[in-house]
Specification:
Elements lengths: L3 E4 L2 E4 L4 E7 L8 E7 L6 E7 L4 E3 L7 E6 L4 E6 L8 E9 L3 E4 L3 E6 L1
Parallel strand pairs: 2-11
Antiparallel strand pairs: 1-3, 3-8, 4-5, 4-9, 5-6, 7-8, 9-10, 9-11
Length: about 120
């Protein structure tokens, strides 16, 4: 059973930064891709950033230039470095892993709140 555990969320002022971590129960290279998603009240969950097994990355337009996804295979961890945070970045952030292009696994989420 795949387990993903996120951490690093919190309350930060606008313009501040946070780094989220997602620790997987197995090797992160066993997944086709991993990513960060977010969901705020009344809105659908949206992709924020993703990274494939090969290292290709993708970002939502709203976070390009501010957020960076990275990974550490030795620690089975994927990170999301968030800079220049805005109030509209407030959401619950979820880590997702895709296995064999068929199975999606989600973490429990971590709250990020950006005050103005």
């Amino acid at each position: 059973q795949v387990q993903l555990v996120e951490s690093g969320g919190g309350l930060v002022q606008a313009g501040g930064s946070l780094r989220l971590s997602c620790v997987a129960s197995g090797s992160i290279f066993s997944f086709n891709a991993m990513g960060w998603y977010r969901q705020s009240p009344g809105k659908e969950r949206e992709m924020v950033a993703s990274i494939t097994r090969g290292g290709s990355t993708d970002y939502a337009d709203s976070v390009k230039g501010r957020f960076t996804i990275s990974r550490d295979g030795g620690k089975s961890t994927v990170y999301l470095q968030m800079l220049s945070l805005k109030p509209e970045d407030t959401a619950v952030y979820y880590c997702k892993a895709n296995l064999r292009l068929r199975y999606d696994y989600w973490g429990q989420g971590t709250q990020v709140t950006v005050s103005s």
